[in-house]
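Notebook p. 47: complex prediction with adenine.
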Amino acid sequence: MSKQPIGIIGAMQVEIDTLAAALENREVEIAGGLTFIKGILDGVPVVLSVCGVGKVFAAMAAQAMILKYDVRAIINTGVAGTLTDKLSIGDLAIAENVVQHDMDTSPIGDPVGLISGLNLVRMPADGDLRARITAVLAEREIRYVVGTIASGDQFVADTEKKTYIRDTFGAIACEMEGAAIGQVCTVNQIPFAVIRAISDGGNEEATMDYPTFVKIAAAKSAEVVRAFLKAER
Ligand code: ADE
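Predicted complex, structure tokens below:
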């Protein structure tokens, strides 16, 4: 097995807690103002980071993991708002690709969401990682949908906004980091995956549902990461 670690990024403590608790041979380091925890998780070398909420922190963590820890892949785990009737609270959204729904240079003629430096709206997640993750989900009979995951520096709690993101990008879930990690990984040619458990509906009820379900959803996503690592070992 490769000695190069897999990077695992969550925005919030609750998204990484259960993984950090199970880590062996742990070493904590600070780089670029963020904390990284190195160790062995379920037999696989990993680096964990609680990066903070939003695209900039997520990009910082991804780039630091690539430069400082030479990660062979990055997995983003956490929670998301659903944009589709096919995903309910507790179900899993798995990225086929990621978009930044708040990136918009359309006034100067670009498609909405274009990352002009890459000439891409959709940044593809790694197909091989995804296949191994969905195999674990299928084996455990966990409900999931594979599709576009949309990131932006906004907590979506508004039906109009939710509908805009779904209709503009055909996205299945919204969150705040995956596509920043996707952009950094695409630029650096590092495979990435985004695994998100649904905590809310991205609508007016999200302000109530999110605090109710964030912990249970975050733990479910982390559980899928561990099952993936165990299969990887
Ligand atoms: N993460 C979990 N739910 C979310 C939402 N509704 N909007 C953005 N990020 C989220």
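Notes: The chain has a mean pLDDT of 97. Residues 159 and 203 are 5 Å apart (CA to CA).
Next step: compare against the earlier run before touching the bench.
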